[in-house]
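Our example copied in:
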Amino acid sequence: MPITEMLWRNARLYGDDVCLVEVNPALEQKREVTWRDYDLVETNPATHSRREITWEQFEEAANRFANLLLTRGIGRGNKVAILLMNCLEWLPIYFGVLKTGAVAVPMNYRYTAEEIEYCLKLCEADTLVFGPEFIGRIESIVDRIRHIERRFFVGCDCPTFAESYNELVQYCSSRAPKIKISDEEDAAVYFSSGTTGFPKAILHSHGSLISSCLTEQNHHGQTRDDIFLCIPPLYHTGAKMHWFGSLLSGSKAVLLRGVKPEWILQAVSDEGVTIVWLLVPWAQDILHEIENGDVKLEDYKLEQWRLMHIGAQPVPPSLIRRWKEYFPDHLYDTNYGLSESVGPGCVHLGIENIRKVGAIGRAGYLWEAKIVDETGVPVVRGAVGELTVKGPGVMECYYNDPEATAAVLKDGWLLTGDMAREDEEGFIYLVDRKKDVIITGGENIYPVQIEDFLHRYDAIKDVAVIGLPDNRLGEIVAAIVEVKRGRHCTEEEILDFCSSLPRYKRPRKIIFAKVPRNPTGKIEKPKLREKYVHGSLVEKQTQG
C-alpha cells in the first residue's frame, strides 16, 4: 500500500477525527481556528495560537494541491522543493506532491539564501513552495534560480515573484488524482544534515517511506488512542518518520512551534499527549528548569504521557538516569538512524531494554546491522569498527553523485560513518563519528566517550570534544563546555573532575562557550573546528 493510500484510508475510516494540531505558544492571540477558517484568503495563520484539521480535511487539502500541480504540468519527473516552518500546511503539501508522482524535496529552514540556491540546483528542482519567513532569502536569489519555473507562496501578502497557494488551491478539485504509484518509484529527496560539509541530496523511493511507517509503529506500538507531540522540523526524516507511526495507526499528532520546557509540558498537558520525541538539549533544558524550580510538574497533567524517546545523537546515560528520577513511569527508547536510512529506527534500543541505557540498541524491525573493519570484514565482538546497516529504507543513491554513492553503498549495505562496538548480548554502542576520532600520541580517542563522562559534572549543561593540533602529540583533546544558567565552574575544577580518566583521554584545554547544534540536535563540530582549529592556525600564521 503506497503511503498516500494510508492517508486515503484514514480519511475514509476516521474522517471526522482530528489528525493534526498546530500549537504556537509564542502568539499572544489565543483564538482557535479550523482548516475551514483557514480557507479564507484574509485569514493569517500567524495570528492564531492553535489550529487543527481532521483526516478528511488533510486528504482533501493534499488532493487540492496535487491537482493544482497537475494543472501546471507537474508530475512524474518533476521535483517540488518545500521550504516551510512546521505548520498545518506542511504535511498536506508533502502528500500532495507524492500524489502526483513527483518527488518531494523538503528543505532545511535554516539554510542561507546561498544554501537554498545550492540545494535547489543540486536536486534539479523545478518548483518551490515557501512560506513568509523565506521571502527575503528567495527574493535575493530569484534571478539566479530561474530554472524554478513555478513558485507557490503559503501565507498572506504573496510576493510578486510567486503565486498564492492559499488562493489557488481553493479552486482545485478535492478528489484524489487517479495516478498509480509503485513502491519502486522515486518519492523524496532529503538533504544530509550538513555537519560534515555541503549537504548531499539523498534519494528515497516510496518503498522506503512505507518501510519507515512499519518500523516506527512496530517499535513504539502506536494505537488510535496515542497522541504524538512532534517538535523537530518536518523537513528532517527524524520528525516525519516518527509521525509516520501516527499515520499508520490513524492517531492524532501535535505540531509544537517552540522548544521552551514550559511550552512542551503545557502542550503535553493541554493536548493529552502520550508520546514525545525529544532531542538531548530539550530534555536537558526540561530537567534544568525542574531542578531550578522554574517548572513545577504538579502544574501540568502528565499522567497519560507514556513514552519519551530520544534520537539523532548519542544520549548521555546520566541524562536518562536523571529523567527517570522525575518521570519514573515513563517508558524510554532511543532510535539511531540517518537520512540515508530514511531516518530513525535502523537500530533501536527497545522500550524493554532500559537496563542497556547508553547503547543505541540492536537492528530495528526489518533491518540488519553489522560492525566492520576498513576492508568490510566484520570485527570480533567488542572491537571498534564502522557500523553498517541494511534494510528496505536504505537510500537509492546520492542524487547525481555516483562516486559518493559508491563510497557508502556496498552490496546493499550502507556504511554509516559511525564507529561502534557490540557487547556480549549484541547491543550496539556508538563510539564516535569516523571523521571525529582524535589521534593523540598514536592513540585513538573517541570524543563521545569523553562527552558522556563530562555530562556527569553537575554544572555542565552541554559539551563538545574536538582535537586541537599539537606539535608533539599530533592532536590534544579540547572540551567546549557550556555551563548551566546560574552556575559557575572553573577550568581547574573540570580538569580535576577528569582526573579519573586515563591520562591520554583527559582534556588538555577547556573552552567555555555555547555548544552549537543543528535543528536535529547534532553537534556542529565543523563549526567548532573552523573556529578553534583553523582560526587558531590562521592567527598563528598572521603573528608569524
User: Anything to note?
Assistant: The chain has three domains: 3-181, 229-433, 437-543. The CA atoms of residues 109 and 279 lie 18 Å apart. The domain at 229-433 is CATH 3.40.50.12780 (Rossmann fold).
